[in-house]
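User: For my dataset I need records formatted as: sequence, then structure tokens, nothing else. Please produce one.
Assistant:
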Amino acid sequence: MAGIKDLKIKIFADGADKSGMLEMYAKPFIKGLTTNPTLMNKAGITDYRAFAKDILSVIKEKPISFEVFSDDFKEMERQALEIASWGHNVYVKIPVTNTKRGTCHNLVKKLVAQKVKVNVTAIMTLDQVREVVAVLDPDVHSYVSVFAGRIADTGRDPLPMMAAAVKILKAAPKAEVIWASPRELFNIFQAESIGCHVISVTNDILKKLSLVGHDLGDYSLDTVKMFHRDALAAKYKI
């Protein structure tokens, strides 16, 4: 198994906890960061603009994605233009549809025409990938986030779909596929195997990186020791 430093895929840290974001930002193998309104709400963020600008006062080089949160496309455009103005390294997350299934295509086309770097998110079908790629500007950097983890949650193997998405994006030379919502560390190596450009990973999963290549016999023993330690701590009796 390749070491994490030997991988070609770019690993982005996904989260909204400031200390965790800055910790990951400082690591050389973390090439970018992403967040979203759900993660921000869970982290207790109440002032969106203040939080983003505080993070951007430190994270000035690596790409970072912030998401619009309106359900109205005109308001999404206004939010997107402001978010994009916060830094040259900012990508604006645009959901592939609104809650009424209205597609984002016209909005994305407008934004990339203004040289806004977008991250089209919540994609789960190849038709969505094709439709988004059709409106991207070949001269503007962008991301296409396919939620492989959520696809897997439905009992489908995401690997063939992700491989097909990578091929589709060859039509957009400055666009990259993000393997989004991974469920386990092994997803990084799966994404690498199909030539996926980026994978966005939560800190909980990133903390397991020290286990890469760990001897399985030793890991078995570590697990037995954990069970024994926890049983003693609980003072179980039969």
